[in-house]
Structure formats: C-alpha cells, structure tokens
Amino acid sequence: MSRKEGVESVEKAARTIEIPLPAPTPIHEEREQWFQHHVKLPLKRLYKVLILELLLRQKPLPPSRNGRHIPLRVTHDKALVDERRGHAYISNSIRSSRYTIWDFLPKQFFFQATRLANFYFICIGIPQAIPGFSTTGNYTTILPLCFFLLLTICKEGYDDFRRHRLDKTENNMYATVLRAKHHKSYTEALGRSVLHSLISATRSVPLAKRVIRSTPKTLHAQKDPDEDEEAEWARIKWHNIKVGDVLKLKRNDPLPADIVLLSASGDDGLAYVETMALDGETNLKTRQAPHALRSSHTIAGLKATNAEIVAEDPNRNLYDFNGSVMVDQSTFPLTLNEVILRGSVLRNTQSVIGIVVNTGEECKIRMNANHHPKAKKPRLERYTNQVVLVLIFYVVVLSVGCSGGYLLWHDSTEKQSWYLNNAYVPFKQIIVGFLIMFNNIIPLALYITLEIVKVSYVLSDKTGTLTENVMKFRGMSFAGTAWMHWSDAEEARQTGVDQGLRQSNPVVRKSAEHAKAAYDRDDDGGGIVVSEKELNHPALNRRSTDHGRHNEHIRGTTKDLLRHIRRHPDTRFSQKTREFILAIALCHTALPEIQQDGMELDFQASSPDELALVRAAQDLGFLVISRSTQSITLRESDMKGQEQEQEHVYRILDVIEFSSKRKRMSIIVRSPDGKVLLICKGADSVVVPLLKQAALAVRKSHEVRRSIQIERDLQRKSEQHTPRNSFGGRPSLTVRRRSSMDIRPEQKRNTLDVPNWERPLRPSLDRGSTDQGRLSGLDDHSLPGDAQIFSSTFKHLDDFATEGLRTLLFAQKELSEDEYTSWKKLYQNATTALVNRQERVEAAGDIVEQGLALLGASAIEDKLQKGVPETIDKLRRANMKIWMLTGDKRETAINIAHSARICQPDSEVFIIDATKGDLEGQLRDITDELLPGSFHSVAVIDGHTLSELENNPTATDLFYSLISTIDSVICCRASPAQKANIVKGIRARMFGLTLAIGDGANDIAMITAAHVGIGISGKEGLQASRVADFSIAQFRFLQRLLLVHGRWNYDRTAKFILWTYWKEMFFYMVQALYQRYNGYSGSSLYENWSLTVLNTLFTSLCVIVPGMFEQDLAADTLLAIPEMYVYGQRNQGLNVPQFIAWMALGALQGILVWFIPWALYGMLNVMGDNGTFAIGNMCFTLAIMWTNIKLLLLETQYKTLIVGVSFAITTSGWYAWIAFLSFAYSDNLSPFDIKHSLEEDYGKDPVWWLVLLVTLAVLVAIELVWKTLRRDMALAGWWPPWRRRRNASDNAKNSEELDLEVWQEMQREPAIREKLKRLARDDVTERQLDGCNYARE
C-alpha cells in the first residue's frame, strides 16, 4: 500500500471512530491569532503604560552601569544600596502566595465580578433592591449571591493562607551569618536566649508556658572556635539575610541565597553541591573558591582580605554568571564555577564560606518562578459562560414576550375594566420587573463547586517525581555473557518478586506453565532456566531474546559467577572477570567514609551512578577502603577460594575528568605489579571508536542495530493490525454483543525473559555440580572470539537500554613507561596552560585514550518510584499524552523514559537538535516520516533547541503542529522558565487541558502555568506543593487523582450545572405560565421570602450533595478501564444536546406541575381555599418535593446516608418553613393571605393534599417508565439510536463506547464487580477472564 493510500485509510478510520482533532482548526487558529494581536496584546501594553507605570509607578528597573559592587567586609554598618533603586537591596523573604492581607478582598471581589453569571446577578440585584421595581422582593437575588460569593472567597482565602504559612516556614529557617557582637540581631538573639533560659527554669508557671509559646524559637549551634573580639558567627533567620552578608554553611545545609564562594574545606578549595532543585540533575557539581580569596576561611582572614565583588544584575539564566573580584588592585574573573545558587544543597564538603550577592526574589531560582500567579478559571467555565449567554438571551426574550402579552392584555381587557382605571404600568417598568422575576433561571450557585480535572497533556518532571534518585547496579556484560547482580536475586528470593524489575515493568507475573517450559528448555538445551513476564498491555511489551544461542546469551547471577571463578581461578574467563570488576573498583572519584558508629563503611560520590558502581564492586569482592589524591587501597577477596582477603595499593597517576563533551572519564594507575594501566568508562558512542579493533566493533554495532531495527519494524507492522479503541490506542477491554456479553482483556504477549529466581533447583545432592553443569560453557575452549563478543555486548547493551537502564562501557590499555612519560609532559603542559586549558586537556586525553581493549558493560537502574510505569500506561490508555521535562542530560532522560515506559521498546525516537542545523528542515522531515496510528512516536528536544525555537516563529509553528501527532515528548536540559513556556505554548496552540507535576522549586513556574498544577511533597521539600492546585505524595497517586477523582469531579460538576439549570427552568416555567392568568402584570405566584431562601435552603442540598459525593461508576471500574476518562475529555457529561434535553425536560415538567393542580384543584375545590397563596404554595411544594425526589432519589447513583439525611432535612424543613410563615405573617391580605393558612385554610383541605400526591405520583411514574425503557434499550444495544446505526455492522464495542447505564448495571453484578476489582489491581490474567460471559438482563 502506498503512503498516500495509507494516510487516506488512517484518516477514514479516524472519521469512522470520531477521533477528536488534537490541533485547533485553521479558522479557530486564525481567530485566536487575530484576538491575540489586535485585542490582547494592545490591552496588555495599555495596562502596562497607564496602570503599572503611570498610576502604580512600577517601572522596569534600568540596568546598573557596571554591575552591583559588593565589598567584602566582616560587618556592614549600613545596608548596601542598590544603584538601580536608590535604596537598600530587597530582603531575602520570598512569597509564593497569590495575595497579601491588603489586596486579597479587592482582587477577589474583582475576580468574582468578572465571572459572567456573577456580573449578571450584580446587574440584576442592584435595581431589584430599589423599591417598586420588583414583584418578588428586594433581596431575593442579592442576599443569596453574597452568600455564595462569601463561600468561594473563604475557600480561596484558606488555600492562600496555607501558602503563607509555608512561606513563613521557609523564611524563618536559620543560617549561620557573620555578625558584629553589638549588632541588633545579635543582641536580640542573645536576649531571646537569656529569656528562653529564664522561662525554662519556671515551666511550672502557666504564664511562662504562654511566653514560651509566643517567644520566637532560636537555634543555638555549638561554640564556634573561629571567634573574634568584634564579630562572631550567629544564627539568624533567612529573611534577615542581606546582600553583602558573609555566610558559613556546613554539610547538607541548603543555600539561603545566591553566594560567591570565598573558601571551602575541600582539597584545592573545592566544594560539592547538589543542584537537583535547580536543573533536575542528580550528579553533584563542583564549585571552587577563587585562589585569591582562599585565605578567607577564618574571621581573621576575612578581615585581612581587601576585596570587592562585582556581580551581574539579577537574571534568570541558571547556566551562566558573569562577574569579577578585585583583590588588592588585581582583578580576577568570576564564573558560575565560583557561585552557588539558592536551591542548591552543600554535599560531601565539611564547610564553606561565601558572600551573598542576590537575595529573595532576585535569586536566580526565584526569577525563574512564576511570581504570584493569578487565580485559575476552569476550562469548563468557558462552556458554562456560553450557556449563561444563551439563558440571558432566553430571559430577555421571555421578559419581552411577557411584556408584549401585557400590552395585548392592556388593550383587550384593562382598558375595558372600570376597576383597573389608572393601573397602567409603563413598558420600561414592566420589562424590568419581568427581568428581575425570571433572573433566577440562571443559577446563583453556579461557580461554587466548579473545579475540574479533565486533562489531555501531562507534563512531568523527572528527578524526584518519576525517580527516587537512587541508583542500583542491575547487571553487567563481559566476555559475551550477561549477568544479573546477585543482591537483586537474593531480594527476589526473599520477597517472591524482583522489586527492581517490578519498577521497570507494570506487572510481573509468574506462570507455572512458562516456568515448566523454561525448565524443559534447560534440560534440552543446556541454557539458563528462565521464566517469562506477562504484561497487562502490549504497549509495555519488551522484545524477546533468543535463548537458543547457548554461549552468547548465558545469564546467571553474579553470585553464581563468583562461585564459578573461585572454582576455576586460572581460566581466561576468570581473568577477564577480575579485570572487569577491578576496572569498576578503580575508575571513579568516590571517597570511602566511615560512618558515625565507626563500624560501617560508605562512600561519598559526585553522582549516584558512581556510588552504585563502587557498591557493586564491594559486593563482588573489591572494596575501596581508602582513597587519597595519590592512591587507592582495595581490599580484594581471594579468587582462589582461600576465604581470605588481601589489600592492594594502586597509585593514582592521573585522572582525566568527565565532561559533557567527552562523555567519558579515564584514570591512569600503577598496579602493585608495576604496570601502568589506563582504565576508561563512558558512553558506548564515544568508547567504541577508541577501541583497538574499532572498525570491527563499529561494523558489529551496525549489524546488531540493523537486526534490532528490522525486528522492531516487523513488530510495528504487526501492531498496525491490532484492535484499536475509539481514539487510536489499544483497548483495555473489548465488549462483544452476541447472545451474551463477553468481556475480555486485550491479548497479552509474553515477550521478556528474565532469570527465574523462584524456580526450585533440580534435585541434586551436589549443588556445585549443578552450577558447574549450568556454567560448563565458560571454559577456555568455548570462549567466543572478538567479533562474537562485540555482537553479544551490543545486543546486551540494547537489552539493558530497553529495560531503561543506564549503560557504560569499560575499556583499558596497558601503557609502557616511555609512552606514559612522553604523554605526561604533554598533559602537564595542558593542565597548566593559561589559555584554552579545558580544550587542551581534552585533546591530550584523546591522544592517550586510543587502542583500548573492551572489558565489558555495566547496567545501572535509576530507580523509579513505585507504580510509575503502571500509572503512565494507564494515563496513556486514558487518551493523555505524557511529556517529561527535565534539566538532566539527553541520554539520561531517554533511559528514564524507557524505564518509565514513556518510550516503549518499539517507539520511534526523533531527536530535534539545533546544533545539526536546518531546524525547520528537521521538523518537516519528521512530519513527513510520521504516519498517524502506525506506531508509537517520541520526540526529544533540548533546552538549546527550545531557545532557537523561541527566536524562529516559523519553526515554533512547525514544532507545535508536529507534537500534536507525537505520542510523547522528552525535553532535556530545560530551564524552569523554558518548562513554563512549553506549558504556555501548549495552552495557546493545542486543544485540551494541561497538567504539570513536579516536586522541586525548579518546577514552580511550570506548575503555576498549567491548567492543573500538581505538587509532590518529596525529598526536595514543599516548594512545589505550596503553589500547586493539588498536592500528592507520589506520582502513582496521579492515576487515582485523575482516573477516579477527576472523572468523579467532572461528572459531579456536569450534573451540578445541568441539574441546577433544570431546577431553575422547572421552577420558573410555572411562574411564566401563571402570567397568562394575571394579565401579564408581573405578579408572582410564589411568596417573596420563600423565593429568597429557595436556592439556599430547599434546593441547595439536592445539587450540592451529589456535586460533592456522587460516584457514577465505582473506583475499581474506572481504574480497570482507563478509557472511561474520555467521558470528560469529549464532554459527554455536559454538552449542548444534553443541556437542551434537560431544559426541555424542565419546561415539560413545569407545565405538568402547573396545569395538573390548576385543572384538578380548580375542578375539585368547591368550598376550599381558592386564594392565590393556596395554588401558589401547592406548586411551590410540588416543585421542591419533585426536585429533591428526582435529583436525590432517582438520579443520584451513589446513595449513602448523607443523601437520605439531606432529603429528610430538605423536605421536613420545607414544611417547617410553611408553618413558620403561617405564624410569622401579620393579618394582611396583600398580596397573599398567609396568616394561619396552614392550620385553618388549605392545610386542612384534603383536596389540596390529594392533588399534591396525585401530581407527584404522575411525575414519578413518568420518570420510572422512561428510565426503565432507556435502560433496557441500552442493555440491548438500541440506545442511543444514532450510535446503534453507526455500529450496526460491528458487534464489537470498545469499553468507552458502551453506554453509561450498561456499565452501571454490570458493576452491580458480584461476579463482574470482582473481575473489575482484580483487573484494577492488575491481578487478572487473560485466562481468568477468557470465556466469562455475562448475560444481558
């Protein structure tokens, strides 16, 4: 089939299943662009000039002439002055809340008044309060409006108050700052300390306890030996820190402000900092104090140093810093290497001293945050406003019609009636009266519960959100064999399931049949016994490996490996094993450290990867017990089975550091036998060209990748024929209608083979003989050649990468003394060069790192948080596109995406890189290559390319049009501001709601820019949580938040809106029909005070209680079938046809409630009360009773005690209200005769009560008959009829296409409910659901 035909067939299929277009239509896009350029942007400029600059005097700050000058002094008598402002620098306080105590009420009142319905009611309520205009009372609108507005404002105020408390917690943290002993803050702290001591001595006195609670808590550090007569290190709160202050930080202290490093306790003035909250990277960064300032490690040294810092003006660039330091008339440059930013944490360094250059909101991390975001309006409010406009038009038409009816009645009746002389009402007054009378057709409480989670794009941070930032050594490959780490196997034996692999896969299943088959293969073929994982979704399948190739794919545990080499210590295989493990133990920069208990040894490393490697080397018998700049001491286990350990010292000659350009590190050591060894580790793309047999390795790498690509192409081709749901994804369940309803989960494929830790060993008296048989292929004669080793290694690398593991290649080379000596001179010259030092060092490293011998590969898992792959899989099946935005490196981001299943094994990954040139051409090529629906596609883009896109409008349009057809996007090396810009770009150009989730301060801007912001309260603190709309503990809770609570919230909000409109239409239809019988005079059928409290007391619970507690489907059903989430995405709960149907139903039932009592009561009531109040109160009672019966008893699916109590309170409360009015009113016949009417007039008339009951019975009977017919037709597949015609030729239905009533009936069946519950917990296999037929009722 040609490409054109393929595209046409896909488009035809999309039209058939009605896939909503993800991108806006050209007309809509053109309209949006016109509004943006001609309305929104000019208004913004006008607001900036007139309001901000002219009225509020908030002009942008001019740049300083040559930066901010900060003298290095022990103390400052006066606060330093900001040249741009003309006064002191801003304080170090930060504020993430939206309001202050001064602007909260004005902003909230303005915000609420800008909502269309509220503005309408304000316009109606004001003239209604004027005497003479309203026939329904003066306060029936304004009082309920104030009540509901007050509820909304109080809710927003409480949320912001919680943000204020979290801000206060951070601002009141303590830091060690150099202060003069006579300084105010020092004396205050000393005074508080004395007061605290005095109060502590009198704790038995109640007053003292109250003083303790009200006294600010002061933290007292141990006495610092570094002291002076004039200055001392004091503990002060963060918000009191100022520009120019000198700070002392200790290990694991967070940075309270941006500082320039003065001195550090590390070698050569080095300090290690963790910048995970800034850029998402997990590896530690090094910062080095300027050489001219390193004497500033004591107070005396600081006094003796005559220096001034010249820093750039505050800006948002996290990856650059320009400044200088003048020391004794000499100037030295300052770069980011000498600066530590707020948001960082000091690691692996005992202490540092620095000077503050930026404080508070001028810190780089705060400038990247979205300051004081505006209150968000839900997307559903847009549709609600459209409905409000329609209803306003309806109210106006109805009022004009009734006013016209009055004019006709005036001409036909009023003029001829002598008793109506001079009673004419002017047209303008009668139309205003009708507008006021019918204003409540638009509900007052419309926005009180309008919060919705209806998401199409999920944008997630990586570190701390998807991952735990814990690296774990998972396996290794060398000599053509792959091995899983034995500690993982021990864990699996104890727990029954390999928890690490459970993180890599959504579900790990054990199958006795598969285990038996693997057992048989082991007997016949001599391979390693394996079991197979069964995955609950083909999207998570992994490519199977060929276990028939006996030597190439031998897999076992490293414990088996160590046992084997102890038994055969002199073989070539054992020698290769030792060389590889030794390389892992030596090639790193980690430092061993004795813990506080003095018994346990741990390591401090610059990255979690290195930490995992040295711990793995320890597990494998090579323990680093000490390290200095000159040597590494290893304690090695004896490989000959002597059960003894030996210590060997390896002298460090040189270390060629890792850099983002080199993507590798090398170490040159002298071994105990005198050999000079170069050991290199790095990415396979850079290490392979450095090998001695590089040509052979490159050829084998291409062959392996070509075979893998062919295999994946075949898999993609086969998946094009797999069943799809209505939006192009793979269905969770397919429902077929025959004589019964057959529910089956999607077909599962067993595609990934892993070691079977739980399989019992074959019966044998000699365990050693069993292992020897399993590993008998590892003798010298069976070892493969170089070509086969390369092929196997690259195959294993692909397997590891498919698992989402980080891989590194290890290689080594033995240097002769002459070779090393000559190279050492070149390297020494490079390291001491004053110009282009880094480039010359890298060039020298390239010279010696040639002709390497491949040792093997390591696989490290960046451990995911629990449930991440399952959650991403379910969100994808719920028609959401998953994006990952991270500041980490591209390779790391792609590996995590594979592990989290954002990338699937068969995904086509497109890398968009501006450094390759022709950015627009790259985007067009990817667009041409994509065929919608054919396979899973992922785009990868970095921060530099995003910056280029911002400067190229054409490329930006191409990018956003491309990503509408891409399944997932990975943004790496992205700054916080770029993350927020991506969210804003999606909101502006794409259809659908955005959800941003993160856990750190670098995610704040992204979270506040999205429609829905989710904060994770994790290791990085509560910065993200306090500005988010919702806060959760782990990423996996997102699936329940969206799929369950998001669906419930949408259904509740949709029902709240529809039911509210229905009841208002229902109530006021009776009022409108009554006008025909009062001459269209605007007289009210209902009593005024009853109208005032109608929506507050008697018809509020019937919409608010379901709006808070309704559950249309059970949580297990929604988790088992994520596709049900499209119910909200497609607006199936609230749309124009449903709105029209409910409005028509309200009008029809209003007609019944008026004409049945009018006919029956008028015919049967001969001697009873025939006043207006009797018939009006009957209609009002019928309206209240039927509203509560229909909404609480008939429409609500989740009936609980709260529903019953609400019904009882409302109905009994109404009759109590009638009794109250009967006694409260005075003897006044105008307009209603209410006094004692309940007990003396209509209340004792049986006809009145009979008509009431008959009318209710008619309404209930009609409702039940209609519901029964619709339910039976839905179960039979005949409802709705338009869907029946569309699917008449297909018996199969996707789960999301099944009618809601069918699912509600199905989940009431115990058997189906149990199956769904187990499927929701990923505990149902294909065999358990296969053949389970459920008959239709």
Structure, explained:
With 1337 residues, the protein is of the alpha+beta class. The protein has 46 helices and 41 strands. The strands form nine sheets. It has a ten-stranded mixed beta sheet with strand order 20-18-17-32-31-27-26-25-24-23, with helices on both faces. A hairpin with a 2-residue loop joins β11 and β12. α23 (817-831) packs antiparallel against α24 and α32 packs antiparallel against α35. The longest helix is centred in the last third of the chain and has 38 residues, at 1037-1074. The radius of gyration is 38 Å and the shape is elongated.
Descriptive keywords:
1337 residues, alpha+beta, 41 strands, elongated, disordered N terminus, disordered C terminus, Drs2 neo1 protein
Structure described in brief:
With 1337 residues, the chain is α+β, with helices and mostly antiparallel strands. The protein contains 46 helices and 41 strands. Helix 35 (1101-1109) runs antiparallel to helix 40 (1201-1224).
